[in-house]
Amino acid sequence: MKKMDADFVNHSIILDACSEPTYTSGQAFVCYPVVFPAVSFYLCQTDGLTRLADAIREENGFLPMLPTEKHSADYDMDGWYDFYIGINDYTESKIDNCIEFVVDTPNSEDDGHLYTIELDADEQKLLYDRLNKLSKECFGMNCREMLDDAKEELSA
Description:
With about 160 residues, the chain is of the alpha+beta class. It has helices at about 5-10, 45-60, 120-140, 145-155; strands at about 20-30, 35-45, 80-90, 100-105, 115-120.
């Protein structure tokens, strides 16, 4: 699959400013449960993210949402994806290791299924920097401030 570079991230990762970030908690099991603050963001469906999601679904035998060379006339015009990513106060990178997406289409057996776009360390850094900038623009707080708020809510 195509690796995300700075140009891709800057053009394809857009926060949905109409949806509020979700303050949550994550949980990891090391030797005992560890609960940590987290914030989830809803991402806009962009051409770049849709093409990545389509590639993953095509590997599993499903039609893409956008036309491709292989599926120039045979694609799912009625479907879409919901994309999500989160930041957290547990991992070193402070960001999830994947972008999750849910398929929303009545035309496919995988309607409602959750898939992931895995991210390597470089992509995580690019995405965190992008989310930091966008969250400040859209919500008036950077990622660190949002995680501090999530921590306050978690301890309340």
